[in-house]
Amino acid sequence: MNFFEQVGSAALGSRLRRLSEQMTAQAADVYALYHVPCEPRWFPVFYLVATKPGLHVGEIAESIGQTHAAVSQVIKELAKHGLVDVQRGEADLRRSVVTLTTQGAALWPTLQQQAADVRQATEELLAETRHNLWLAMGEMEYALSRNSLTNRVKAIRDQRTAAEVQIIDYAPQYQPAFKHLNVEWIEHYFRLEPTDLKALDHPDEYIIQRGGHILLASYQGSIVGTCALIPMDTTTYELAKMAVSPVAQGLGIGWRLGEAAIAKAQVLGASRLYLESNTKLGPALNLYHKLGFRKTVAGPPSPYERCDIQMELLISA
Fold it and tell me: Which option is the CATH number for 34-146: 3.40.50.410, 3.40.50.12500, 1.10.10.10, 3.40.50.10260?
C-alpha cells in the first residue's frame, strides 16, 4: 500500500502537488516538441500580454489569480529573454505596462497552435476519465471560496475537542492552577498587583465565602482555563480572573467558560455582569463582545492599574 492509499483524502494537497509536478514536467516536453523557448509557468502571463496588450502587472495578477510578486517575477524572466517589454503607463506612472517585443510577437503564432493542440489532447485525456477533473476543480475552488479548508478542519477539531473539555467547579486542590493561569497572562502583558494576589492566593476567602463562584476548564486531565464570579451587590457579579493556558488557546475554551459563567450568574440571581479589561487585549475583548458585553462608563473606580475599559452584560430573566 503506497502513501496515498494509506492516508487517503487527508493527503489531497500532496497528491495534487504530485499531479501538478507530473503535468509540469510533461508540459516542458511539449514546449520542447514545438521548439518554443518558454517555461510552462510563463504561459498564463504571456497569453494575457499577447491577447490583451497594455495591461499593467496588477491587472495580469488579478486575471490569472496569482500574487503581484509572482507575476512580477515571471515578467522579469520574460523580459530577460527578450519576449516582453515593460514601460511605465502614460496615465499612471506608478503602474508598469507590459507588451510583447518583436521577438515575443514572432513566437505567438507557434504558441497559439501549441495551445490549440494541447487543448485537444487534454479534452481527449479528460474523456478517458470517469470524473471530469477540470469540472471537479471548478467545483472544488468554488467550495473552498465559500468555506476554506482551514475553517472546515477547525470546525471538526473544535467539535472533537469540545467533548474533551469539561467545565467544573472550583475545589481547594485547584488553587495552584487557578493562580498559575492568571499569573501567567498578567505577567505576560502587565505586572502582578497586590489586589491580584489577594484573590489568587486566597480564593476561598475573597471569592467563594463572599458568595462568589469559580469555574475551571479541564482538558486532557489538566486545568487549562478558569474564570470567577465575584459579587458586587445583590444583583451584580464581576466576571474576573478569566484565563486560558497558551497551550489550550484556539480550542474555544474561553467561550465555553464565558457561557458557563453567564449561566451560573443567572442561577445565582444576577441581572448584570461587569468586567474590567485592557484595550490591548484584542482577543479577550472580541470574546467579551461575542458573549454580549458592551462598554460602560458607569463602573466604579478600578483597583487595577492595567484597567482602561469597563464592560457590562445585562442578563434577562
Answer: 1.10.10.10
